Amino acid sequence: xxxxxxxxxxxxxxxxxxxxxxxxxxxxxxxxxxxxxxxxxxxxxxxxxxxxxxxxxxxxxxxxxxxxxxxxxxxxxxxxxxxxxxxxxxxxxxxxxxxxxxxxxxxxxxxxxxxxxxxxxxxxxxxxxxxxxxxxxxxxxxxxxxxxxxxxxxxxxxxxxxxxxxxxxxxxxxxxxxxxxxxxxxxxxxxxxxxxxxxxxxxxxxxxxxxxxxxxxxxxxxxxxxxxxxxxxxxxxxxxxxxxxxxxxxxxxxxx
Length: 256
Ligand SMILES: [Zn+2]
Fold this sequence. Notes:
Layout: E1 2-3, E2 8-13, E3 18-24, E4 28-32, H1 42-51, E5 56-60, H2 66-69, E6 79-83, H3 84-104, E7 120-122, E8 125-130, E9 133-139, E10 148-153, E11 157-161, H4 178-191, E12 195-198, H5 206-220, H6 228-231, H7 237-255
Parallel strand pairs: 4-5, 5-6, 6-7, 11-12
Antiparallel strand pairs: 1-2, 2-3, 3-4, 8-9, 9-10, 10-11
Helix pairs in contact: 4-5
The structure holds zinc ion.
Zinc ion is lined by residues 63, 65, 143, 162.
């Protein structure tokens, strides 16, 4: 666990290079994303138990992808907040996707998972206030149509979900909109956050946003190199495959 300031903590998990963020104010504890299941985030849960006092605990899902929601069930009696589309996606596809993983990649399932959908939803934005701190949840379509970021002021920090990713962002045919992704990242880049937390990665600087943006623009104009990973010294099998799929996404959307 890494303490960023008096209110913000990052719980980092090596598998998927994943960050769960935890925001603690006088009134609230927010847990942002719940990773691959209850057994993956037991340390985070213990921290919540130790620090909860009379605070209200909220889980926030940045979007509906499995690696962001499978640990929801660890938090009994907690409210879970997301974009409306995220709740709809979890309700329609959550069980099906979990069953697919049970068959194909059971080792990614960390513990006994019960799919738990968000039960508080919003459309454009939703803001909480606690003393001098504001926590704004804001919809930014792109990586998925249900993606949101969390903006914490006065720290000028952004928890970006998968809108920002190290080493590069991922698009997928089912969920993504590349044009909206670029426009969302342009807006986030302009906000010039002091600290930006991607769900996947260990870099927290706005330069990563610029690099992600440049990657997506090259992808959109079909000018990105097949050897992008080689040039950037990216060797992870996961991202080599992700880059291939990103390029395929563009080719397929041109055919359409
Ligand atoms: Zn995702």
